Amino acid sequence: MRTKKLYILRHGETDQNLRGIVQGRGINSILNETGIRQAQAFYHQYKNISFDHIRCSSQLRSYQTIQHFDSSELPILKDPRLDEIGWGEHEGKAGDPELMEKYYRIIQSWSNGNYHDAAHEGESAHALSLRLHSFLDDIYKLEFTNALICTHGRTLRAMICLLKKQELMHMEKVSHSNTGLYVAEFKDSAWQIVTENDCKHLTKSIER
């Protein structure tokens, strides 16, 4: 099997990110001006890599982040399995102490291994992992050299755990930034993470 690399990044900044508002699967937000600049900086840094497969979630902020790579020769495939986790009653809200207490209680529950816990009307970590397992199984079967994947914070955390063959209780240890990049390389019959939350493209953008 040829060497495969997955370039996995979180979407650029949105106004909701800036204001601390929970987005989740149900909020189809767009990039703000900073997010647009981050997306452009990422493109300029990685445009010379010969990507032969590109996917994003079905949400606008994900597509906008990598839209500069879209072309008739290599269209971006929108895959809902890459959508952010559904946060249910928390989506579109921030700052309410009672809601935030419940929000962090769920995250702590996942860290304790209770993956079936979910926000009211939301999605559990277990359900998220099932769609990501499906996605990664399909990716494994594809013939490619470099694949570009754009997703969301919680989804990225879960995906990195799966690629590392770690339990989801370790999700909180996976750092992520807007357009932060992870690179996974398939070696010795397993995925190995060779780059974690790389944001050097943003520094270079500032230096221009």
Task: Provide an overview of this structure.
- It is a single chain.
- The protein is α/β, with parallel strands linked by helices and 208 residues long.
- It has a single domain (5-207), classed as Rossmann fold (3-Layer(aba) Sandwich), CATH 3.40.50.1240.
- 37% of the residues lie in helices and 16% in strands.
- The protein has 7 helices and 6 strands; from the N terminus they run βααβαβααβαββα.
- It has helices spanning 15-19, 33-46, 60-66, 97-111, 125-141, 153-163, 200-207; strands at residues 5-10, 53-56, 77-78, 146-151, 181-187, 190-198.
- Strands 3-2-4-1-5-6 form a 6-stranded mixed beta sheet, sandwiched between helices.
- Helix 3 (60-66) links the parallel strand 2 (53-56) and strand 3 (77-78).
- Helix 5 (125-141) crosses helix 6.
- It is globular.
- The termini are far apart.
- The model has no long low-confidence stretch (mean pLDDT 95).
